[in-house]
């Protein structure tokens, strides 16, 4: 992907990095790894339209509790 050279939020330098994206839907949470444009100044992340569609698809599955194809890596607990 060809990222813009300057961050749209602050004007800082954009570099490509592999990042882990945390996605939430309903009571479920998932992570996925993608390449993103990351601002070295403010930390803003830029994603491709394909990755944004992927995130939305994952969120819909999480909301519907349709997670059979996802790999379980642990459990999360809320402390009262």
Q: Would you give an account of this structure?
A:
The chain has 80 residues and is an alpha+beta fold. It has a single domain (1-80), classed as Ubiquitin-like (UB roll) (Roll), CATH 3.10.20. Helices cover 19% and strands 32% of the residues. It has 1 helix and 3 strands, in the order βββα. It has one helix at 49-63; strands at 14-25, 28-39, 45-46. The chain has a 3-stranded antiparallel β-sheet with strand order 1-2-3. The N and C termini lie far apart (44 Å).
Brief summary of the model shown:
The chain has one helix at 49-63, and strands at residues 14-25, 28-39, 45-46. The chain has 80 residues and is α+β, with helices and mostly antiparallel strands.
Largest sheet: 3 strands, antiparallel
Distance between the termini: 44 Å
Mean pLDDT: 94
Q: H/E order of the elements? A: EEEH
Q: What share of the residues lie within helices?
A: 10-25%
* Biggest sheet: strand arrangement: 1-2-3
Q: Over the alpha carbons, how many angstroms does the gyration radius reach? A: 15 Å
Oligomeric description of these chains: single chain
Query: Structural class from helices and strands?
Result: alpha+beta
- How many β-strand stretches? 3
Which percent range describes the beta-strand content? 25-35%
Write down the overall geometry. Answer: elongated
- How many helical stretches? 1
Q: Which regions contain 5 or more consecutive residues with pLDDT less than 50?
A: none
The CATH topology label is Ubiquitin-like (UB roll)
The total number of structural domains is 1
- The CATH architecture category equals Roll
Q: CATH class, please? A: Alpha Beta
């Amino acid at each position: 992907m060809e990222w813009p050279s300057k961050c749209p939020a602050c004007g800082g330098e954009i570099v490509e990095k592999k990042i882990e994206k945390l996605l939430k839907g309903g009571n479920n949470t998932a992570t996925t790894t993608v390449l993103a444009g990351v601002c070295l100044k403010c930390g803003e992340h830029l994603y491709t339209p394909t990755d944004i569609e992927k995130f939305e698809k994952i969120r819909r599955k999480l909301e519907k509790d349709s997670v059979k194809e996802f790999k379980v890596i642990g459990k999360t607990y809320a402390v009262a």
